[in-house]
User: Fold this.
Amino acid sequence: INPSELSSLFKAKAILGRSGDHNSHLAVLCRLLNKPYILSVSLSEKVKKGDNLFLDTRRGKVFKN
Assistant:
């Protein structure tokens, strides 16, 4: 994450990350901001702005509606 992306974290309802673990910089930021997150996500479909996603943070899965 670079500083220019920080404002997006404040606006987001949840965070998806392509890499990292629960000790990564992104995970720490998400916990501080009280945002649900899933890291090490590889989606079979592309996600576009405005797409509705369902995050199962207990299982670490993402579903696209």
In short: The helical segments are 6-11, 25-33.
